[in-house]
Amino acid sequence: MKVISSLDDTKSFINDHKSDETISLIPTMGNIHSGHLKLINSASSSSLKIVSIYVNELQFNDRNDYISYPRTLANDLSICEDNNVDLVFTPDNSVICKQLDGDKNDLPKFTSYMCGANRPGHFSGVFRIVKLLFEIIEPNYAYFGKKDFQQLLLVKYIASTYFPKLKIIDVDTVRDSNNIALSSRLSKVSRESIHQVKLIFQTLMIMKKKLLSGLEYNAVKASSLLDLEDNNISVEYLDLRSLETLKEQVNTKQPCGVFIACYIDNIRLIDNIEI
Predict the structure, then answer these.
(1) Active site annotation includes 122
(2) Are strands 48-53 and 23-28 parallel, antiparallel or unpaired?
(3) pLDDT: is 99 or 81 the higher one?
């Protein structure tokens, strides 16, 4: 396994292989867990597997969140090697910033909802770095998880608009034995608060069941918000949204999902389930 930070060395490595192999890219911000492993292992064993590890400062609207984001590079590299990754691209800010243009990007409407409404600049930062990674690596396939569903839609937009030959592979959310969606931020939640984290998925499932039974959306949502707040969970949003446009829905007549962002121990967690 190669570990490369230099842009020129990365491109040279890729050029030496891309004529003979398809390239699979798994972009991460490090602190690799079982959710990332599912992405890595979803890539074909016959492809050139490239994992990028870069904590994207541009997508953090809270400087303290960026500073405290878990960084576990040595362990990440060990995991990647154990899982047959061919190249780990670990650029630092100086490498990335030299490649970024100053142009503002026109983001699709759906990025203004949910996380976009509550995290100014977040999706602009995601857009710029993901697009740059695609330009550098030139993958045939890129793997992203459904837990970050809004991000996944943006990545698909980037691919269809700028990289029409690139196929985005979406991978189901990985959950632990308590149905908690795995997240790098989970390591920052105290043991005493894990019982609260369990309530996130439970709430989504209860809402799904009630909505499919025909109960009115606003009443279901209000009841769920009260239950979460009674358990000291601060909710940023809890919405029924279209899986295609992310516009808020009032029923389940079209493909949709329930989406949540909340704070436990001042740690922001997100999750969703399809209906």
Answers:
(1) no
(2) parallel
(3) 81
